[in-house]
Fold each of these.
Amino acid sequence: MGVTVRYEGGMRFVGESASGRAIAMDAPADSGGTGSEPTPVELLLNSIGGCTGMDIVYALRKMRTPATGLTIRIEERRASSFPRVVTNVHLDYEIAGEIPEENARRAVELSLSTYCTVSNSLACVGEITHAVRVVPS
């Protein structure tokens, strides 16, 4: 697995995965870009959400308590000086469905402690916290 990232002018870059799928990135206008695409840090946060979300949906299906919806709100804190590394990521999970809270919490914990490659990679360099809410469908 790997990606190739190519510069396309201005501050726009396009990354292409080994599977041939492409994703564009750009910088905000105040940094010389157009702001027309997500920034690399936004993609990083989307990646953690997608990774942990897929784990949770899969785990809840295996528990025979499937989610009817899942929203993950993700906030990050960054260092104030360059290189402005991400120092904290907080994930707020809202899981919809007829799911026992114990199953929802277990699915989240399994994802964050064992299965989510992205969150576990980031946990090596910063703090990741979370909250879980189950809401009726």
Amino acid sequence: MDTPVQNSAVKKRRYLEFERPLEELDQQIDRLKNLKVQGAVDVSSEIKTLEKKSEDLLTHIFANLNPYQIVQLSRHPDRPSCLDYLSMIFDEFIELHGDRNFMEDASIVGAMAKLQGQTVMVIGHQKGKSTQENQIRNFGMPRPEGYRKALRLMKLAERWKLPIITFIDTPGAYPGIDAEERGQAQAIAENILTMTDLSVPIISVILGEGGSGGALAIAVSDRMLMLEFSIYSVISPEGCAAITWKDGSFASKAAEELQVTSKDIVKAKVADRAIQEPLGGAHRDPLLMANRLKEALIKELQSLKALKSEDLISKRYDRYRHLGAFEGAASSP
């Protein structure tokens, strides 16, 4: 099963294509650190020089990312997941399973958790960190039973007056025939409808990929936060390229046209704000990322708890009612 990211420091770091210039430098630093541990020679100054060079290169690369590189970062295999944040942010949690209808869907995680003394319901997509784990988690693509489990936990939170926090990281809902046979579209629609009318505060956080209705099914909320290198889109850049240009190689152009990055989504007022990631992405310093996210969650939760239930529902309705609204030029007489 999934190994918490904070215990995986011994794993070899994986590099995306645009990060390759960093790989050789990091390998040199590791070799010198091993020599230092062995006590064969003092290489402290050489290590400091290479670390500064690596940091400068990292800063340069991440100051010039294009939208498709951000898409790749949002899918990084070492990126912290819902379970990672559960263990790093919350004081304790109890995972809850099953939709009480068909089966357990491991691509959706649900848990009652403590956030600075406040009991909350946490619901999130869960990808695996290896091929075997991804098979168990279905690559973070829920079937109807996953969404029905989420719905059951939302109603439980409503009954017990618990705030809801959702963590979003999915390419989209599972598109298989079996999912369609068991009512995939209905399950997603029912979640969206139910979330619009819940009387408890809801905070949604896009951790990595926010793909289509598969993301929206647990993303209707009072506050939408995004990690800096996360994305939110009605379709993947590859899917858009295949439809629009009949060629998946146009994915980079599609990512630019779709405006999927946190900067774009916040500008469009779909998300409220983006949370800065550590230099190089959340996977390079998961604990720092978790601390920043925890601080944001506590602040947003305090703000929402001050509102009456009827005001929460009314403001949530207005929020989504005005998405995509625009003013046209006055017509000539």
